[in-house]
Amino acid sequence: MTRPGPILTLLAGMATTAALVSLSLAESPAPPQSGGMTSASMENPTPTGTAGEDYPAAGPQEPAQTPTGSPSAAPATGVVRADYATRVRGSRGLLAISVRGAKAIAYFCDGQTEAWFQGTADGGILTLDGFGGADVSAEIADGAAVGELSIGDRRWDFTAPTVRKPSGLYRATALVRGAKLVAGWIYLPDGSRVGAVTLDGALVTAEIPEPGQATVIKGAVITPEDVDAFMGGL
User: Fold this and answer.
1) For the chain, how many structural domains are there in total?
2) Which of 24, 111, 175, 223 matches a 20 to 30 Å C-alpha distance to 186?
3) Does 86 share its domain with 144?
4) What is the pLDDT of residue 51?
5) Which of 231, 121, 118, 130 lies closest to 171, judged by CA?
6) Does residue 200 lie in a domain region?
7) What residue numbers bound the domain in which 97 lies?
8) Which of 162, 161, 97 is nearest to 130 (CA)?
9) Does residue 114 sit within a domain?
10) What is the gyration radius of the CA atoms in the chain, in angstroms?
11) Is 116 part of a structural domain of the chain?
12) CB-based contact 115:95 (threshold 8 Å)
């Protein structure tokens, strides 16, 4: 019996090598498909679109709300109804301002000197005029009226915070034997108060009543009225 020749040995070796290559290819993972995410991109995905497109959000989201134009949102610089009052530094008097829509009134009083003002409220800017060139100008900022009061040659800066009733401005009018009586009062939250009463323009002595409580002045029963009662009468 003869031994296999060199050719047979070579053919056997080539067959074995081919079998090993086929086995290796069968066990290798398939190459990634075009457009697929690598492991790095899955760990740190970078959205390229808005929520609901390429990468949906984790849960439902409410649409963004825009306050502009909302029926319940007041204009940022608009004041519909507000009352302000303060002690005017550098003077002995108090100042009260009331705003109702586009109208505004103010009253300054130190017990001896008084001045009424009326004017407008427009976009948070108050412009009021009084007798003899007196005026009040202010801007509503952070819940306060900040501005300047001018009476004659005297000027004062002021910051009047918002107040709530019974604080604020009150007024009353009456006829006393044919003469016109006008009374004004300012009440601050700390209990400070001031008022003045004139009869045909002349100052008369009178006690300061409690807000809304009647008092007798020159024989007439007078009740301090809230600003709403006389806003249109100035």
Assistant:
1) 2
2) 175
3) yes
4) 30
5) 231
6) yes
7) 81-161
8) 97
9) yes
10) 43
11) yes
12) no
Q: Which two tokens stand for residue 204?
A: 């008369």
User: For 17-28, how does the pLDDT look when each residue is reduced to its tens digit (9 = 90+)?
Assistant: 444 434 343 444
Residue 17 is encoded by which pair of tokens? Answer: 């090598």
Looking at the fold, whether 153 and 106 belong to one and the same domain comes out as: yes
pTM above 0.90, yes or no: no
Tokens of 117: 């003002």
- Taking the C-alpha atoms of residue 148 and residue 150, their distance in angstroms, rounded to an integer, is 7
Out of 138, 161, 184, a domain closes at 161
* Cross-strand pairs, 189: none
Same structural domain, 116 and 179: no
Secondary structure (DSSP) of 108-121: EE-SS-EEEEEEEE
Q: What does the block give as tokens for 9?
A: 């040995």
| HSE toward the beta carbon, residue 162, CA cutoff 13 A | 10
Count of residues making up the chain: 234
Q: What are phi and psi of 103, to 5 degrees?
A: -100, 150
Let me know whether 186 and 149 are in one domain: no
